[in-house]
């Protein structure tokens, strides 16, 4: 079991700093250009023949809406659209005239369809592999903080049983003749159910309340992580804002490709794809699959290197850096300045950042407040121009006790001296 001493769940401020080192290169300009062209083609098809009831109407309605906000929900939508496209590209689902290949143009289109199918099959496998590996990585990382005894085995067995039940539920739905859309609606509901169960574990409510009683020893920091990781304004919101926009563009692009193929198949007997439209479709599939696989490769590296927990010192320093509510005080030599801070909860982490306006000292003090503390007071005093400090703890009854604290001093970054023979450009 990995130690959780002195660590806290990742914060949004930490992820903002972490993601600064992972800048996603912008999508190719071809994504916007080709999406616009396909949108024009679909508008022309719909103008001459409005969307029929059922799947066509649903696709048009979906295109008029914004893509999902959550990154993982977009992943599922891309996977759903790719499966739907592959379904349309299977020969049994071609228009009757195309299956017969009664003209050279139909034979050429059949060859193009085979190339498109291969590209989507490759991208779909890439996405499925990413989702499976990421899910397993998250679970295994969490399990390193669970006691490695019957409690860990209990959680693993419960997960395996739950996943078997979910798979059986999907298979039963497919056997009943459900559509791909209905299957993915179930898959996403199952994903949300996993989140709800995790949240219940973290807050010790619902069906997990009894289980947690048996899991004495599960670190509180892990339960905190489970509770807050997917909050609307929590750490994952930083991920959505950084990497959501390019993914949203790809989600829209693959939906447009699916809509164009679906409309074309439904109107094939009266209006076949023009050569220009077919060329744009083939180019769009090539660009989409290339850019989507590039995004998956990038986000896989980001996820693989991103920690779930960080030292409290790091979290405090980052939060303090984002807080502009600093106070200034002039302390004459030989005098002290006292600051009172109320601490309402045990195991709180307190970050204290101070610096000299005319000096080079910049220290951050972190305290892990332990014990039974309610409305207690911490006193910080700075002595003279040497900037010494002392810490005094007094409980609500006015009694002193001992604090455990840690002080880190981060040295300044030395500026490189430019050689005299070098000139700054």
Care to describe what's here?
By secondary structure, the chain is α+β, with helices and mostly antiparallel strands. It has two domains: 236 residues, no CATH class; 84 residues, no CATH class. 56% of the residues lie in helices and 12% in strands. It is built from 13 helices and nine strands. It has a four-stranded antiparallel β-sheet, with no helix packed on it. Strands 4-5-9 form a three-stranded antiparallel β-sheet, with helices on one face. A hairpin with a 4-residue loop joins strand 6 and strand 7. The relative contact order is 0.14. The C terminus is likely disordered.
Which descriptors would you attach to this protein?
alpha+beta, 56% helix, disordered C terminus, four-stranded antiparallel beta sheet, 425 residues, three-stranded antiparallel beta sheet
Q: What are the low-pLDDT stretches, counting only 5+ consecutive residues below 50?
A: 206-210, 358-386, 405-425
Helical residue percent band: 55-70%
Q: How do the SSEs run, as a string of H and E?
A: EHHHHHHHHHHHHEHEEEEEEE
Order of strands across the main sheet: 3-6-7-8
Number of domains: 2
| Alpha-carbon distance between the two ends | 53 Å
**Broad structural category:** alpha+beta
How large, in whole angstroms, is the Cα Rg?
Answer: 29 Å
Q: Report the major sheet.
A: 4 strands, antiparallel
**Could you tell me the strand content as a percent range?**
5-15%
Provide a count of the helices.
13
As an assembly, this protein is single chain
Basic shape: elongated
Number of strands: 9
Overall pLDDT confidence: 77
């Amino acid at each position: 079991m990995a130690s959780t001493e002195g660590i806290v769940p990742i914060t949004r401020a930490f992820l903002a700093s972490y993601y600064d080192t992972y800048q996603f290169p912008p999508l190719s300009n071809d994504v916007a250009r080709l999406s616009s062209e396909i949108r024009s083609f679909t508008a022309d098809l719909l103008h001459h023949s409005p969307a029929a009831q059922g799947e066509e109407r649903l696709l048009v309605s979906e295109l008029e809406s914004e893509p999902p906000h959550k990154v993982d929900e977009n992943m599922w939508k891309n996977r759903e659209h790719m499966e739907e496209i592959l379904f349309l590209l299977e020969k049994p689902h071609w228009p009757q005239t195309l299956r017969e290949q009664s003209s050279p143009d139909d034979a050429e289109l059949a060859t193009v369809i085979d190339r498109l199918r291969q590209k989507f099959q490759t991208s779909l496998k890439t996405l499925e592999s990413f989702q499976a590996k990421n899910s397993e990585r998250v679970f295994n990382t969490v399990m390193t903080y669970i006691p490695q005894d019957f409690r860990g085995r209990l959680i693993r067995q419960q997960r395996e049983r739950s996943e078997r039940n979910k798979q059986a539920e999907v298979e039963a739905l497919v056997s009943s003749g459900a559509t791909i859309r209905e299957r993915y609606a179930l898959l996403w509901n199952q994903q949300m159910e996993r989140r709800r169960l995790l949240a219940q574990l973290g807050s010790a409510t619902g069906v997990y309340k009894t289980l947690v009683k048996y899991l004495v020893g599960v670190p509180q920091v892990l339960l905190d992580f489970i509770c807050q990781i997917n909050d609307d304004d929590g750490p994952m919101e930083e991920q959505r804002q950084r990497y959501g926009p390019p993914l949203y563009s790809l989600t829209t692009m693959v939906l447009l490709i699916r809509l164009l193929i679906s409309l074309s198949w439904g109107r094939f007997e009266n209006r076949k794809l023009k050569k220009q439209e077919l060329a744009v479709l083939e180019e769009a599939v090539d660009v989409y699959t290339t850019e989507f696989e590039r995004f998956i490769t990038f986000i896989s590296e980001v996820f693989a290197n991103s920690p779930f927990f960080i030292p409290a010192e790091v979290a405090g320093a980052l939060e303090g850096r984002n807080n502009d509510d600093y106070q200034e005080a002039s302390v004459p030599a030989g005098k002290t300045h006292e600051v009172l801070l109320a601490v309402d909860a045990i195991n709180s982490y307190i970050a204290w950042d101070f610096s000299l306006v005319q000096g080079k000292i910049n220290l951050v003090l972190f305290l892990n407040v332990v014990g039974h503390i309610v409305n207690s007071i911490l006193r910080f005093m700075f002595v003279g121009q040497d900037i010494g400090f002392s810490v005094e703890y007094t409980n609500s009854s006015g009694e002193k006790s001992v604090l455990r604290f840690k002080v880190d001093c981060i040295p300044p970054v030395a500026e490189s001296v430019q050689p005299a023979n070098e000139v700054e450009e």
